[in-house]
Design goal:
Structural class: alpha+beta
Strand content: 25-35%
Helix content: 25-40%
Number of helices: 11
Distance between the termini: 30 Å
Shape: elongated
Number of strands: 21
Length: 376
């Protein structure tokens, strides 16, 4: 990978009274916060080491620019399709802010020599900033790498040791950056690099992504259960639970919970597929055929509940409607994401929830106004 240093801005933590509120609003309000003096600027192009510690685990990565040539030459691989309207909104917001406030999360195969380099740097240097969130349960630290010799060392390591990366989070940000790069006509460097955070695969967790559907498509609960039993082995369970393994789901209907396992004949239908996911089967066999939902990404009857919200988040959403049904899915594995990306396919919408999730505005790559760049 071709890593490129950039001139960053970062928040003046001493001016921020409620960090969660600040990081929650900076996506829309960055320009206002910058003008009001809430950000420091780093004069020299730099790269950054970023460490998150939470729930007893520590994650360490590198935040940098990555040359757009790597995106164009299939060295940054995707596993998700983008939506034109969401991409347009992202583009308009980026141009209005004149800044990228959150890096794309890129996963790469572990490289021991890079890990050792980062750990040695953290031991030798003081962090640029440190702070905690979630009542002290989540610790963030950032180190600045600005010495030219050290930047060159890190660039050389990534150039030699990291030939391919996978987009874990930020497909729309990536497609928007590519669009800007393609439309830039004045030869400047603002759009030559993608704002990215590189983490080794073993430092990235994938959590479940669950579904609540606010409709039984005209079926009574009894009819729905009868149709469902043609596809699943259905077992009532005494209390709310998430699936224990792949090809097992749990479901909540009218306050009752069930464990669902795909019938063998259903799995045999997909035996020739390179990767078979529960979300794929659910979309084909239940969402489309049973509930009449053809576009699972845009149908307003479908709500997606990310894994960190837990069973409580699922139950809160399903209790909003008497005809609502919830499906909990087992997390997709990183090996499956990589396999899908390697063969040029995409996952079903809302299949994965990646951790760690970086905060908007933690580090910012500013972008100047450029002649010849169109938002159309």
């Amino acid at each position: 990978m071709q890593l490129l240093p950039f001139r960053a801005t970062f928040p003046k933590l001493e001016k921020i009274q409620v960090p969660e509120q600040f990081f929650g609003t900076v996506k829309q309000e960055y320009h206002k916060y910058f003008e009001e003096g809430f950000f420091n600027e780093i004069a020299e192009p730099s790269m950054f080491i970023y460490q998150i510690t939470k729930d007893g685990r520590s994650f360490t990565g590198v935040i940098s620019g990555v040359h757009m040539e790597d995106c164009l030459n299939d060295r940054v691989l995707k596993h998700e399709e983008t939506l034109a309207d969401k991409e347009e909104k992202q583009l308009q917001l980026l141009l209005r802010r004149k800044a990228a406030v959150k890096p794309v999360l890129l996963a790469h195969q572990p490289v021991p020599v890079i890990k050792n380099w980062l750990e040695a740097y953290k031991r030798a240097e003081l962090p640029l900033m440190k702070f905690t969130l979630r009542g002290g349960k989540e610790h963030h630290s950032i180190w600045c790498v600005s010495a030219p010799a050290q930047i060159e060392e890190l660039q050389e390591l990534f150039r030699e040791k990291v030939p391919i990366t996978y987009i874990a989070d930020g497909h729309h940000r990536t497609s928007t950056a590519l669009r800007l790069f393609d439309q830039t006509t004045d030869g400047t460097e603002d759009y030559d690099s993608l704002f990215a955070a590189f983490f080794p695969i073993h430092d990235i967790q994938i959590q479940d992504f669950n579904r609540v559907v606010n409709s039984l498509n005209g079926h009574s609960p009894a009819q729905f259960m009868a149709r469902l039993s043609q596809t699943f082995e259905v077992e009532p369970i005494d209390q709310p639970a998430k699936p224990r393994r792949k090809f097992e789901l749990t479901m909540c209907l009218r306050g009752e919970w069930y464990r669902l396992q795909w019938k063998e004949r259903i799995l045999l239908e997909y035996a020739s597929e390179a990767v078979v996911l529960d979300a794929m089967l659910l979309n084909h066999k239940v969402m489309s055929k049973l509930l009449g939902i053809e576009d699972v990404r845009n149908d307003r009857r479908v709500k997606y509940i990310e894994g960190p919200r837990g069973i409580a988040g699922v139950m809160k959403e399903v209790e909003k409607g008497s005809d609502s049904v919830a499906f909990c899915l087992y997390p997709v594995q990183m090996e499956e994401v990589i396999k899908v990306a390697d063969i040029g396919q995409v996952l079903p919408p809302k299949s994965t929830w990646f951790e760690p999730r970086m905060k908007n505005g933690l580090l910012v790559k500013r972008i100047g106004k450029r002649v010849g760049v169109s938002a159309k």
